[in-house]
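Fold it.
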Amino acid sequence: MRRRVVAVIGAAAPADEERALALAVGRAIAARGWVLVSGGLGGVMEAASRGAAEAGGLVVGIVPQADPSACNPYVALAIATGMGDARNAVITNTADGFVAVGGSFGTLSEIAYALKRRKPVVGLSTWRLDQSRLRGEPWLEVDSPERAVRALAEALGEAEG
């Protein structure tokens, strides 16, 4: 049976608060038995990877470089794409759902790709989207790591566990 894959997306240079949020999200993802996927680099990606790895979870990094050693040290499985920012499409095709923590334009592109694919995205201290332009896309905004993972589980049709 295929395990649920959840992406944590966010800034490579986050504020300390965003880094702490991502660490907690990573731990909560691992606690659910989900596989954490990210862009595999630093910042939010590294903090979430660390949280998941320390909690015994499987961490996958899909890096923009052609060299898998570009991954942060918490990544167990590195996928080197050599695609630059285009790797964001690979991440959004791979994950079942997303938690966005902070972020800049790369994060915004991943949010857009995920919503276009009708995959649930939970925003935590990230971009604010104009609700009038969302036509039923699965976008949720929350205020804590625990609520982020709980909301994503519900959006993915998983019973609370």
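The chain has a mean pLDDT of 94.
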